[in-house]
Amino acid sequence: MDIVDVIKARILQLCGERNITINKLATMSALPPSSVKNILYGKSSDPKIRTLKKLCDGLDMSLAEFFSTPEFEALEQEIK
Q1: Which Pfam family is one of those matched by this entry (predicted)?
Q2: From the centroid of its chain, how far is CA 12?
C-alpha cells in the first residue's frame, strides 16, 4: 500500500468508527464533499496537509493521532 491508500483507509476507518458518512465528514471539516471524495476515489494522488488538517479538526483529533497507526508506521521510505 502507498501513502494515499493508507490515508483513504484511515478516513474510512474513522468514519466507520464514528458512524458518519463522507458527506457528514466534509461538513464537519468545512470542506466541499468533492475534496473528501477526490481523496477516497483516487482523483487526488497527493492530498494536501491543509486538507488533512481540516479533516482532523472535523474529527476532533490531531494530525499526530491521525497518523499514529501501524499502517502509517509500516510505510517504506520513499527516498533512499
Answers
A1: HTH_26
A2: 8
For 35-64, write each residue's pLDDT tens digit.
Answer: 999 999 989 888 999 999 999 999 999 999
The predicted model scores a pTM of 0.91
Q: How far apart are the first and last CA of the chain?
A: 18
CA distance 71 to 3: 9
User: Residue 32 CB: number of other CB atoms within 10 A?
Assistant: 11
CATH number of the domain encompassing residue 45: 1.10.260.40
Distances (CA, A) of 1 to 25, 37, 41, 71: 24, 19, 15, 9
In-domain check, residue 79: no
By residue range, what is the domain housing residue 51?
3-72
